[in-house]
Specification:
It is a single chain. With 367 residues, the chain is an alpha+beta fold. The protein contains 11 helices and 9 strands. 42% of the residues lie in helices and 13% in strands. The strands form 3 sheets. The protein has a 5-stranded antiparallel sheet with strand order 1-2-3-5-4, sandwiched between helices. A two-stranded antiparallel sheet has the order 6-9. Strands 7-8 form a two-stranded antiparallel ribbon.
């Protein structure tokens, strides 16, 4: 984090996008104009978010956010960006739950207007725990909060998962199942194997990732549990908070029909990822926050479902994150931002933690 440049998140020209967006809106709201187009600091690399104000007397809202699929010519992080799928998931969550999701205004599946499919939604106001530098570092609003305030945020965030998993009928999430055979969990893991194969095609593979896949098979749960609608990218950095309560749940591109623990493992491990980095760089971080035992206990109390096979699911989360990080690192190499080391595992920022999980020693040492 201290030595590598921050990866670029876009190859697009904001002024050109604003002009093209205004032309597209004119067909829906003649005379509408776009103002204040901005790229948020938290913009990711998997797809792009643009914020803008919509100027028109009949505009459904003023403050808008546009979710644009990645530029297919820009070494994308994922092989497919299905904006209609994301739109369908958000509509389902809005219809079936009380989980706060932004109101989606328009879906455009034709890539011609902006160069890729996109949808426009109402902008959520609030604050988001930062990724860069991570909220576990000093100098941001969540780190500066009291223990009691962070406890409220943690409880409310786990409750988002509980309500999502309980309130959406499982049959309505079946459209998210990947093609293939076997249980929802087996299909989910097989899809990750296929993603990894795509990432390393023509490039150096990762022995650590392949060892992690082998370890998963050894830890495979005897009882996988029921499949539900999973958020997919279930972490607090994808929630807009009003105070310390969720105001909007974002980033549904990784949504899945899978066991509840797929979300729980991701929530627990993605926090551990930031916490481990913070400790490595000499700060205490937030050791009492989003602890695995506390998350499991609270979730069980809210749902009656006791999380199972969490060693498997936290390893799976770390493995999935490693594949994404490897792709991002190869993307940086593509743009000349980094050089690929002799050992490709060194491209995975949390390689030591993943290796400890493969050995079965990570949680013994984790605080």
């Amino acid at each position: 984090m201290a030595t590598a440049p921050r990866p670029r998140t876009s190859t697009r020209d904001p002024e050109e996008l604003a002009a093209r967006l205004t032309a597209w809106l004119d067909a829906r709201l003649p005379g509408a104009t776009v103002s204040g187009l901005a790229v948020p600091d938290s913009n990711g690399m998997s797809s792009e978010t643009l914020l803008f104000d919509l100027e028109h007397p009949d505009a459904p809202v003023r403050g808008c956010a546009l979710r644009l699929a990645a530029d297919p010519a820009a070494y994308t992080v994922f092989p497919v960006y299905d904006m209609a799928r994301q739109h369908r998931v958000m509509a389902l969550v809005a219809d079936r739950t009380d989980v706060p999701v932004p109101r989606v205004l328009w879906l455009e599946e034709d890539p011609e207007p902006l160069g890729a499919p996109f949808f426009v939604m109402a902008r959520a106001e609030g604050r988001v725990p930062p990724d860069v530098m991570p909220y576990t570092y000093e100098g941001n609003w969540l780190h500066a909060a009291t223990d009691a305030q962070r406890a409220v945020l943690e409880a409310e965030s786990v409750a988002v998962l509980a309500r999502l998993h309980d309130q959406v009928p499982a049959r309505e999430a079946a459209f998210l199942l990947p093609d293939g055979e076997g249980s929802p969990l087996r299909r989910h893991v097989d899809a990750q194997r296929a993603y990894y194969a795509w990432v390393v095609e023509g490039l150096a593979p990762s022995p650590l990732i392949e060892a992690a896949f082998a370890r998963l098979e050894e830890l495979w749960p005897e009882d996988e549990g029921p499949a539900v609608l999973c958020w997919g990218d279930a972490r607090i950095g994808n929630i807009v908070y009003d105070g310390f309560a969720p105001a909007a749940v974002l980033d549904w591109e990784m949504a899945a029909c899978a066991p509840r623990e797929v979300d729980l493992g991701w929530t627990v491990y993605l926090h551990r990822f930031f916490q481990d980095l913070t400790v490595t760089f000499g700060q205490p971080g937030l050791p009492g926050f989003l602890r695995r035992d506390a998350v499991e206990r609270r979730y069980a109390g809210l749902t009656g479902h006791v999380p199972r096979a969490m060693e498997f699911h936290t390893l799976y989360a770390a493995l999935r994150h490693a594949i994404v990080m490897l792709r991002i690192a190869y993307r940086q190499a593509h743009f000349g931002e980094v050089e690929v080391p002799e050992d490709p595992d060194r491209l995975i920022l949390h390689h030591a933690a993943l290796a400890a999980m493969v050995r079965g020693t990570y949680w013994d040492a984790a605080a």
